[in-house]
Amino acid sequence: MKIDRRSFLSLGIGAAAGTALSPLPWKLMDDVSIWTQNWPWTPVPAAGESTYVNSVCTLCPGSCGITVRKVDDRGVKIEGMKGHPVNQGGICMLGLAGLQLLYAPDRIKTPLKRSGKRGDGNWISITWDQAISEVAGKLKELRANGQAHTVAGITGSGPNTVSRLFKRLLTAFGSPNFFTTPSMDSSYRLALQMMNGAPPDAITPGFDLENADFILSFGSGLLDGWGSPVHMFRTNTAWRKTQARVIQIEPRLSRTAAKADRWIAITPGSEAALALGIAHVLISESLYRKEFVDNYTSGFEGVVNATGELQKGFKQHVLEKFSPKTVSELTGLDPAAIILLAREFAKAKAPIALFGKGQGKQPGSMDEALSIHALNALVGVINQKGGIYALPAPDYPGWPAIPPDPIADSGVKQPRIDGASSDAFSRLNQLPSAVLSGKPYPLNALLVMEANPLYTMPDSKSVQEAFDKIPFVVSFSSFMDETARNADLILPNHVYLERHEDAPLPEGFSRPVISLSKAVFKPLYKTQHVGDTLILLAKGLGSSIAEALSWKDFDTCLKQAMGDKMDTLQKTGYWTDPNAVFPDGKMTFATPSGKFEFASSAFCPGFTPVKIEGDATYPLVLIPCDTMRLASGDTANPPFDTKIVEETILLHQASLIEINPKTALSQGLSENDRVLLQTPRGQANVLVHLEEGIMPGVIALPRGLGHTAYDDYIAGKGVNLNRLMGPVADPLSGLDAAWGIKAKLSKA
Amino acid sequence: MKSEQNQENTKKFGMVIDLDVCTGCGSCMVACMAENNVPFRKDESDKLKSITWMRVYKLTNGKPYPETDICYLPRPCQHCEGHEGHSPCVSVCPATATDYDMQTGIVSQIYTRCFGCRYCMAACPYHARYFNWYDPVWPKGMEKYLNPDVSVRMRGVVEKCSLCIHRYQAAKNKAFMEGKTEIEEGDYQTACTQACPAGAITFGDLNNPSHAVYKLKQQPHAFRLLERLGANPKIYYVSSREWVRRAGDNYLKNEGPAKIG
Questions:
Q1: Is the pLDDT of residue B213 over 90?
Q2: How many domains does chain B have?
Q3: Which residues of chain B from 201 to 260 reach within 8 Å of chain A, CB to CB?
Q4: Domain boundaries, chain A
Q5: In Å, how far is A71's CA from the nearest CA of chain B?
Q6: A99 → chain B, closest CA residue
Q7: Between the N and C ends of chain B, which has fewer C-beta atoms within 10 Å?
């Protein structure tokens, strides 16, 4: 058959019409659309019964109550616990992202033993029995050789039962080297000890911020993680209703400064001078509260020294050295502004001055702590409503005395390796140099609990060198953090949501509160509560040490430590002292004079600038800054929190430094330029971010970035500030008082 | 009869966000991501590819140091009503994947209908819509925390804030089980509202005089974003600072929020 044009067309049209009339095209289109909407790889979360469990968040010292939503045995969401005294139902972004830590892929799943070189990341899984016997064996050997004191322990936890147990183990073992992680709390406690005469172990500063109406914050990041963050957010909202005024003093327009009623930028490092300048105005204009100063203080007019001579008191010292004109030169602030600020401060009903820069994770300068505390005394808000006072530590029923043992007794009598007089003010910042110099003695073993010193301590390079010199490092970390990666053995702890423990004393709060962290989840992996690990270690070490930690397990130990509080804790999740009335207005002080001491023969608040590292070849000053969106301590930022970090802080995985456009112009830099940031301690490639809200000549870099361990969701993002800054020891406390370092930028 | 019933039950859920109280901490963003199964990737520092139903913007007054000032502005989907439900995005969607619900005032997003043309993203004046350029992948083990009340999205579709509509459905179910015809104000609150540690977000029915938002939206300093576009959004902001209110729209130098009715 010949196919002519006519039949071709009619056949074609017929076929098209036939197909169109048949269900085929519709069926095909339907199939294609179903196929394109098949996503077998997209997870479908399983439904189940929804339950809610109350516990406490221990990711920061804030200790907020949390409610965990579970669907069957899966944790689905963490919310704030309604009615908890600290956070009253609120929660922060770190607490919200807690499940990303529980289910993190970089969790350590079994005890690990290093194989190959340290830090290479080659591990062998071992059993718990083997892990305990390895550590106990090594420690036993050191103890038998009279080296018990050359073992040190670092904890990043607050004064909870696990920390106390850790200290007890070291003491029974014979080591004086128990290290807590110093923070602004250490400086506050020292200031309270010197001026209020409070005992170092038994107190913590209490802040009645809700009742204050004029808040003079010397760089405290009240909305950037200072104290108990959610409590601070709530207080800040309450301040708007009570019309309290917040004055933020710092060289950078932080989140706190932006929300404050006034932002006052001063030369970084001159905070103590400004505090004393304000004191000068209060004294010279007779604006201070005479009733308090005359009746309840000593050292204001004069100080009688040891030889019976009368020395200058605080008043004369301030009047001579800190006139508004002098302070103006030191701070860069107009003398009139200083006078105005002082008058406003004095005239407020309930003024309070706050110390502790940023999140308060650094101890800071004692000059600053004492001057600011003296300012509070001048306006008479010590132990007063709306003021600051020394909280007694909650009364833990005493554990039985540690059984005497000759090795332990001689061990703990050895000097501490950091030169501190007791662990109450342990100088963790001095540990690396002591280890490197081998003086007063070499360190043979280090146990690290809930801390990540290789990341959080300044001058990372020397910390790493010090770690390399310690022959035996044990980490109790739940995650493969920087310190765990450089350990010889890892005995992994449960994650906080799997642990049963106490969380005492929320930082920056007005009352003592103890919360109970419950094991919301059964352990996901073969991890062990570090409290149990310590008890098993003691058993492995035997003799008097086993006797000192003779509890069956940590739960029994915790029950004994909590005593009659346990019932309340289990019922409500938290405990507050029913008999405590704070502030108590108590005007008796445990100082030698029985009064609040402005100055004594041993000290007088002054201003000796903390030395800043770097010479004239570094034209800029680099200051650290804290942001609420970055956790900078031993908890690494979970992926959700890193996701919300602004593109002005982290862009294309690089850190940005904040610089004033004027300074940038003089350096020939513009937005997002790639530059090399150099300081005397190190260098890093960063991007430039022009920001009007920073003092010219100063550049800022946030803490909390630049992890090198963990997984790809946490590591490799930006720069760790600690690589660029070193510690500067405070002459009074010996703790780290560095507030910045000289720096220079050059185009990369 | 039917229309009468509708009239009675018509709700208009919306928010009033107090920018004086908001600290810009970002808890709302994380609460939203945790509640709504929003995925994350290894590198989220390029914000053009980052999905954040709730996003906190940083506004500055543009003045040089030391007169600089900053304000943070949380921006969920504005759930525009437009004129009789003609929201900018709803009007352009060729797949009817997004719709304005006259009963609740919520602009919905139906992922399985969306074929990813992104017209709605172009139409949205608030950049509230996000496209899934990648398949969501959770690190091994982390898919355990996913919320069964919210479906997980897939590559190739647009997503946005739903005003936690699953919580509304749960609240309605609860009310039904308890034999009530109406839900309580506190029974339906979005995840961001609940989480905000500063208490800056108030959520409720803008039509209901007994709800807090009803009064708050009438404050003298209340405003909405880009009001003059006529998108008629349901998210109100409050700020005592004039420069912040001015930043809410593209005003000329000689005009301001006060001058337009």
A1: yes
A2: 1
A3: none
A4: 5-36, 112-181+405-563, 209-386+583-597, 620-747
A5: 8
A6: B145
A7: C
SS3 category, A350: coil
Instruction: Name every chain A residue with its beta carbon within 8 A of the beta carbon of B97.
Output: none
Chain B residues near residue A694 by CB distance under 8 angstroms: 65
Read off the tokens for A179: 């290290």
Q: Residue B3 above 50 pLDDT?
A: no
Q: What is the pLDDT of residues A244-285, one digit of tens each?
A: 999 999 999 999 999 999 999 999 999 999 999 999 999 999
Would you tell me how many other CB atoms lie within 10 Å of the CB of residue A460?
Answer: 25
Residues on chain B touching A41 (C-beta within 8 angstroms): 135
Please state, in angstroms and rounded to a whole number, the distance separating the CA atoms of residues A227 and A221.
9
Q: How confident is the model at residue A585 (pLDDT cuts 50, 70, 90)?
A: low
DSSP one-letter string for A633-669: SSSPPPHHHHHTS-TTTEETTEEEEEE-HHHHHHTT-
pLDDT recorded at residue B261: 40
Is it true that A112-181+405-563 and A620-747 share their CATH fold?
A: no
Considering chain B, what is the average pLDDT of its residues? 92
- Token pair belonging to A410: 């001689």
> In the CATH hierarchy, which fold is given to the domain comprising A112-181+405-563?
Rossmann fold (3.40.50)
Residue B130's CATH number: 3.30.70.20
Distant-in-sequence, close-in-space partners of A41: CB < 8 Å, separation ≥ 6: B135
Structural class in CATH, domain A209-386+583-597: alpha beta
Q: Looking at residue A307, what is its pLDDT? A: 80
CB contact under 8 A, B56 and A644: yes
**Token pair belonging to A627:** 């942001």
Burial readout A182-210 (b: 16 or more C-beta within 10 A, e: otherwise): bbbbbbbbbbbbbbbbbeeeebbbbbbbe
Read off the pLDDT of residues A658-696 as tens digits, 9 standing for 90 and up.
Answer: 999 999 999 999 999 999 999 999 999 999 999 999 999
Find residues 96-125 of chain B whose CB sits inside 8 Å of chain A: 112, 115
Average pLDDT, chain A: 93
Residue B1 has pLDDT above 70, yes or no: no
From B222's Cα to the closest Cα of chain A, the distance in A is 17
Q: What is the pLDDT of residue A1?
A: 66
Calculate how close chain B gets to A653, using CA atoms only, in Å: 6
Identity of the amino acid at A714: I
Instruction: State residue A63's pLDDT score.
Output: 92
Mean pLDDT throughout A138-156? 95
Nearest residue of A to residue B143 by CA position?
A43
Continuous H helices in A401-548:
406-412, 431-437, 453-456, 460-469, 482-485, 530-541, 543-548
> Considering only alpha carbons, which residue of chain A is nearest residue B148?
A45
- pLDDT of A35: 76
Residue numbers of the domain that contains B110: 2-259
Tokens 């220079």, residue located: A744
Please state, in angstroms and as integers, the Cα–Cα distance from residue A626 to each residue in A36, A93, A158, A357, A724, following that order. 46, 15, 20, 9, 16
Cβ distance A422 to A733 under 8 Å?
no
- Comparing alpha-carbon positions, the chain B residue that sits nearest to A235 is B198
Quick check: B148 contacting A, CB < 8 Å?
yes
Segment among A196-210, A621-635, B246-260 with least mean pLDDT = B246-260
- B253 to chain A, closest Cα gap in Å: 22
Integer Cα distance of A540 and A531 in angstroms: 14
Nearest CB to B34 within list A97, A102, A645: A97
pLDDT of residue A159: 85
Q: Which CATH class is domain A620-747?
A: mainly beta
Between chains, do B197 and A76 touch, taking CB under 8 Å as contact? no
Over 50: is that where the pLDDT of B2 sits?
no
What's residue B144's pLDDT? Answer: 95
Q: A203: helix, coil or strand?
A: strand
What are phi and psi for residue A20, nearest 5 degrees?
A: -65, -35
